[in-house]
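Sync notes, pocket subgroup
Present: LS, DG
LS reminded everyone that the earlier model was apo-only. Rerun requested with magnesium ion included. Inputs:
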Amino acid sequence: MPSIDQERRLLPTYEYKQDLIDAIREHSFLVVIGETGSGKTTQIPQYILEEMPEMKKIGVTQPRRIAAITVSKRVSEEHGTPLGKDIGYMIRFDDHTSSSTRLKYMTDGILLREAVQDPTLSQYSVVIVDEAHERTLETDVLFGLLKKTHRLRPELKILVMSATLDVEKFSDFFDECPIFEIPGRTFPVQIIHHQSMKINALKSNFVSTAVETAFYIHTKEKAGDVLVFLTGQADIDRACQEFKDKCSELDYTRDVKYYDVDDEEQVKDVSVYPLYASLETMEQRAVFELSRRGSRKVVFSTNVAQTSVTIPGIKYVVDSGFVKEKSYDPNTGMDALLVTSISKAAATQRAGRAGRTAPGKAYRLYSSESFEHLPDDTIPEIQRSSLLSTVLALKRMNIVDVLNFEFIDKPDETLVMKALSQLFLLGAIDHHGVITELGKQMSQFPLSPYLSRVIISSATEYECSEEVLTIASVLAGDNDLFRAPSPRQGEDLIAEAEKCKLKLAHHSGDHMTILNVWNEWRRNDESRRWCRDNWVNQKALANAKSVRSQLIDIANQLKLPLVRTRRIEVERTSGKKEGRSKEVVREVDAVPVLKSFLTGYYTNIANKASGRSVFSHYAPDQHLAEKSSHTSSALVALYLHPLCALSDMFDRNKTRYSQIEWVMYMHVTYTNRAVMKGVSKILWDWVRSGKGHERIRQLATAHLNGVDKKKLNKKRKQLLDDSSAQASSVESSDT
Ligand code: ADP
Ligand code: MG
C-alpha cells in the first residue's frame, strides 16, 4: 500500500504543481480543467496552502454538502491536521472551521451568503469555484458576483475548476482568462447500448433493468467493480435489495462464467453498496477502498459519483440514463424533484468512470438512437428553477434590476418575473422592486423565503414563534418525520406503524402533528428508543433540534420575540363505541400557528375535489382575474402523500374528517402523480381576510424589476458611491 504522501504524488495534478502556482500568481482569473479524480479538488487548494504563504485564506466551493464534508476530511488527513483546524468545512447549519482555518471547503450557497454580507469577500485571498460544470444556481450567481468583487478587489485570485471540456464559456465570461488543462490519464471505454430500448419506454422500469444488467456483469464479465447510476435513495435502496436477493440464489460454480476455484483473480463473492448524499453512505469506508481479491464491489449511486467523488477500481458502469433534478413546475409555481433523462455530456462523464485506471465497459440501458436524441448539455439549474431565494439575495445586494444582472446564462425572463411577483406577494419587495425591511429580515434566514416569512409573522403577528420555529426546523430538513415499514416487513408491522402515527397525529394535519411528535420526543428525554418504538425518524428530530437553535440565534439577532402560544380547552371523546366518555383537555391552539404558515403559503392551497382524497390546486391570481367562485379553478389534481396526517384520517375516521374543504401544503412531489406534503386543514376565511389577497390585487400595477427609472437612477448613484467607498476602504486596510 502506498503511503498517503505517495498517493498524492501519483495524481496527475502533481507534476503541474509549479506551473499551477505560477499561473495563479500571474492571473486574477484562471480556469482549471481536468478529468474527475485527477486531484483538482483535494490537491490544488493544498498546493496553494503549502506553497503560497502569501495567500491568507482559501475558500473552495462545492455544489454538494456531502462533497464539502468528505473532501475536507480527506484533505485534513493528507495534511496531517485535525479537521476544523488548518482545514475545515462549512455548510448550512454546520460550521467546522475555526480562527486558524486557512483552507475552507464550503457549499456554493455559503459563499453566496457571505458575498451578500461582504461583497468584497475580504477574508479570502483565493476563491475557488469547484465543480463549475454542475452549473448550480448558486454557482451561476457567484460567477456574476465574483466579477463584481474583482472590480472592487483586483488582488483577489479567482479560480474556476471544472471536469468537462466545454469551458470556453467560463473563460469568456471571466475576461477571456487562460485555461489550464491537466491532461487526463484515461483508458478506452467500450460502450454497449441496449439497442432495443428507447429511453422513454425505459423510464418505468430502469431500476429492474439496471439490476439485471449489473447481475449480468457480475456473472458474465471478468473481475472489476461495477458502478450503477440511478436517481435517488428510494430506487437505490430497492436496487440493492433486489440485487442482493438475486445474488443469494447464485451458484458460483454453475452460473458464473469466469469462475475458477484455483484462480485468485476470479470472482467468488460480491459486496453491494448504496451511495447517495447522506453521511451514512459516504462514510462507509469500504466503498472507497479497493475490493479484496476474488470479490466484486457493486455500487448503486446517485449522480454524486458522476464527478463529485471518485470510487477506485470501477471497471464497469451501468448508466440508467436518468437523474433526479430540480425542476420548476409552472402549474404550481414551485420547484419539485423530477426524474428526467440525462444529457450527452452527463452520459459521457458516466461512461468515463469506467476507464480511470484500466480499460473498461459502459452499459447504457438505452439505445444509441436514444443517446443521439439526448440534449448536448444539462440545462443550467438557473434556467429551470424558481428563482425566489436567488432574486431575493440579489435584491438584498441592492441589485435592483435583476433582469440585467451579469449572468453567464440568463435565466428565463418569465421565471425572473414570476419570482419577483412571488416576492412581492410575500411582502419582501415593494412596488418599485426594492427590498423591504421584511425582505431584509427574510433574507437573514437560510431558509426558503416562504418559511422565513412564516417565522417572522409567527413572532410579530400571531404570538406563536416558539411553536412555529419548531415546526419550521423539522420542515427545513429533507427527512420524513415518520418511518414506514416496507411492504416486505409484513402486515403486522405496517399496522403497528400506522397505529403509532395515528396516536401522534393532530386532527388539523401535519404542522401540528410535527409539534406533537417534537413535544413527545422531548417529554421522553429525546430517547432513541422512543423513536424506534413509535416509527419516528430520530435523525429528523436530532437535525431539527440543531436547526432550531440556529434559527433562534437569527431570530434573536433580528429582535423577533420568542413567544409560546396560548393553550385552549378542547373536548375529546375517548374509549370504544360503547361507554364513550368525554373529557376536557388543554392543548396548543392550532389556529395562530396555521395562520402564520398561511402568511407564507397562502398561494399553496387546494380545495377538495369530488374524489375522496383528490384536491385541486387553487391559483389565486387566476381566480381573482376570472372573478369566479373559489371552487371552480381546478388546475392540477393534487393527492395527499400517504405519510400525511390527514391521509390516515381519511381512511380511519371518515365521518369526522371528510368535512375537510381547504388545505394548505408545503410542497408537491411527483411520482406518477402530484403529491402534496406538509398538509394541514385551513379555512377559506383565513385566506380571504389575510393581507395576501390585497397584494394579489396590487400586483398588476407594481414595477418589480425596478423599472421606475427615477428611483432606479437614484439607487444606482447611491450604489456607485457605496462601492467606491468600499473599494477605498479595502485599499487603505491592505496597505
Ligand atoms: P478531482 O477533483 O480532480 O475529481 P479529487 O481531488 O477529488 O479529484 O480526488 C483525487 C484522488 O484522491 C481520487 O482519485 C482518490 O483516489 C483520492 N481521494 C479523494 N477523496 C478520497 C477519500 N475520501 N478517500 C480516499 N481517497 C480519496
Ligand atoms: Mg473534484
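DG: The radius of gyration is 27 Å.
LS: The longest strand covers residues 662-670.
Action: DG to write up.
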